[in-house]
Amino acid sequence: SEKKHVAVVGLGPMGATMAETFLKAGHPVTVWNRTASKADALVAQGATLAPSAAGAAAAADVTVISQTDYKAMYASFGDPGDALRGRVLVNLSSGSPTELREAATWAERHGATLLTGGIMVPPPGIGQPGAYVHYSGPESALDEHRATLAVLAEPVHQGADHGLAMAFYQAELYVFWSTLTSYMHSVAMLAGYGAKPGSLRRFTAKMLTDLAGDGPMGFVGHLTREIETGEYEYAENTLRMQAVGMDHIVETNEDAGVDTTVPKALRDLFWRPVHEIGEETGLGSVYEAIRKPQG
Ligand code: NDP
């Protein structure tokens, strides 16, 4: 077959879906998982179960790893001997940038090349339009296997530093989790005033759309330009005005009887540039406060 032989190591919800997606795309697939029974359904669909992770990698043109963390990779491959020599390993597990860099050194020590990746979709999104992976490590290795890896999700190369894949992954997850937590916060606060949980939905949906757009509320774009130039606009909206507004948000959350940890942290972050820079600054200078952690 002209389709590359793929090994998938780790058959949790993600890895199992990846193996199935490769099979459906016509790739020969060899799998390995610590708990071997998780391979049963895939073997029934045509996958080959390898006796070891190193054996799976040695059988394939390229190996995709999807496990809980990077510790699982070391536990799975043990001392692989020469099995990984000349191979490309693609690890799509979650970890810290430091762990990813260490893993690249480990792979090199065994004669292998590591590509690190952060996959930005849950299992049902794998192989679907709109799915993408932030990759880092040598671009030549990604280019060599780009067509195969594109079966899972669009590959986006972020740089040679192996840590970048997780820096991007976590940057995205932080926006995801903090945005959704803010939404839950506001719904909980409104519930303290007797409002129904669904009453904020359409307003939040509009705001999220507007923030990403090009109109006057297109703050993702406005802030990006301000951060690039270092000039934080304040003509109609000083940061002081907004910090006072954050004080009111903290009070309103207190009145509603909900947790105020996050609102208070945001309020403090807003006031810092006002105290340090003065009145003549805008929301964007919160970025400068974030870049200067306090004691
Ligand atoms: P898990 O994070 O629960 O990973 C389960 C897999 O890891 C199983 O194959 C499990 O083996 C294996 N594993 C864990 N510890 C070890 C170990 N010490 N030795 C050998 N194997 C081990 O499930 P997911 O499939 O959901 O996630 C895989 C990765 O993908 C994670 O890093 C996750 O953060 C990331 N991810 C997940 C998304 C999701 O929506 N689920 C979305 C994007 C990324 P066993 O079966 O034997 O327990």
TrEMBL record:
Domain NADPH-dependent reductive aminase-like C-terminal: 161-292
Source organism superkingdom: Bacteria
Key word Oxidoreductase present: yes
GO molecular function annotation: NADP binding; oxidoreductase activity
Pfam families on file: NAD_binding_2 (PF03446), RedAm-like_C (PF21761)
Keywords: Oxidoreductase
Transmembrane segments: none
Keyword flag Oxidoreductase: yes
UniProt domain 6-phosphogluconate dehydrogenase NADP-binding: residue ranges: 6-154
Coiled coil region boundaries: none
Assigned protein family: Belongs to the HIBADH-related family.
Full protein name: 3-hydroxyisobutyrate dehydrogenase-like beta-hydroxyacid dehydrogenase
Organism this protein belongs to: Actinomadura namibiensis
